[in-house]
Amino acid sequence: MKAFAVVGQNGPIVEVDFPEKQPTGHDLLIEVKAVSVNPVDTKVRNVATGLTNNARVLGYDASGVVKAVGEQVSLFKVGDEVFYAGDITRPGTNMVNHLVDERIAGRKPKNTSFNEAAAYPLTSITAYEALFEKLNFSFTHPIQNKDKTLLIINGAGGVGSIAIQLAKLAGLTVVATASRPETIEWVKKMGADYVINHRQTFAEEFDPLPFKEVDAILCLNDTKGHWQNMADVIKPFGMICSIVECGNPMDIDVFKSKSVSFAWEFMFTRAKYQTADMIEQHHLLNNVSALIEEGKVKSTLTKTLSGFNAQNIDQAHQLVQAGNMIGKVVIGV
Q: How far apart, in Å, are the Cα atoms of 163 and each of 14, 166, 266, 287?
C-alpha cells in the first residue's frame, strides 16, 4: 500500500510500500481522500524517536470513506464519510488507506468537500477542548459567558481561526493578536472584536481597548516569549491555556499574586492514553460538523495542493514551518 514517510530525523519525505492491515476492535479502515498539515507534523518530523525501520508516516488530519470496520465498531458503517485528526502514537494519515479508532472520528459535514473537511479536525478539537474543557467556558449556555473576555494569541493560525469562531458563538468578547495587514483582516473576518499586535507589549496594546485585562488567554504561539505579556493582562483569578511548549523551565510565580490557573491543551492526550472519555472527541467532531452544515463555522482552508505525493506533502510542511501561514493547507488526493 502506498504511503509517504519521512526517512530519518528531519529527513526527506519519500513514497514507501506500507503493509495494509485490516481493522480490528474499534478501528475503521479509511480510504483517505484529503489530508491537512499542521505544526505538529513538522515538529514530529524533527524527532528521532518513534522511527520504524528508520522511517515514520506523518499526518494528523484526514477526511475519507470507511472501507471496513472492526468487530467492536458501532458508530460507523462501510461507506460513511468521516473526518478526524488521528493518534500521534500510531502511523499517520499520509497513506492511501488508514486505520483510526472510531471514538476519535466524526461524521464529515455533508455540505463540504473532502478537501475542506480535512482542514477542520485537529484545529477544531484543539480549540474546542481548550475553550470549553480547559478554560471552562460554556458552549451550550452562552449566557454564562456574558461580559467575559478572551485573548487569543496567534488568531490567524489554524487553531486561532477556529477558536475565534467558537468563542464568538459562545458569546465571548474576543481579542485576537495579529501583526500583518492580511492577518489583521483575516482575524476580523473570523469574528474578532479587537485586534492587537503580538510584536508589541500587550499592556500598551490594551490601552485603546475598553478593558485592560481579560478573563482568559488562549496561547497558540511562543508561550515563553509571551509569558510576562500574559501575566500583565490576565485578570485576578483568570485562566490561561497554552498549546505550545516552553522549551525550558519558566517562572510560574509571575501568576501567583493574581491566583491565575494555567492549563495545557494537547488534543492527542485522549487517544494516547486511551482515556475513559475518549469518545468525547467523536461527539465533539459531530458537533462541529453540525455547526459547519448550519453555516455557523466558516472554512479555514486557504491553500490546496492537488495530488497526494511526497513533493506536495513536503511543500505543505515548508509552508507551515515558515510560520506565516494564514488558516490551513490541505493536500487533495
A: 34, 5, 15, 14
Distances (CA, A) of 252 to 130, 166, 178, 230, 255: 20, 29, 26, 11, 6
Q: What percent of the chain has pLDDT over 90?
A: 89
Tell me if 168 sits within 8 A of 188, measured CB to CB.
no
Number of structural domains, the chain? Answer: 2
Asked if residue 148 lies in contact with residue 172, where contact means CB atoms within 8 angstroms, the answer is yes
**Is 270 within a domain?**
no
Query: What is the pTM for the complete model shown?
Result: 0.95
Provide the residue range defining the domain that includes 68. 2-119+275-332
| Rounded CA separation 128/136 (Å) | 10
| Residues 31, 20 contacting (CB under 8 angstroms) | no
How far does Cα 154 stand from its chain's mean position? 13
Is there a contact between 13 and 5 (Cβ–Cβ < 8 Å)? yes
Last residue of a domain, one of 264, 286, 320: 264
56-106 confidence digits (pLDDT tens): 899 999 999 999 999 999 999 999 999 999 999 999 999 999 999 999 999
Q: Are residues 221 and 282 in the same domain?
A: no
Query: Rounded to the nearest 10 degrees, how much is the dihedral formed by the CA atoms of 234, 238, 243, 249?
Result: 70
> Are 306 and 228 contained in the same domain?
no
Averaged pLDDT, 110-135: 97
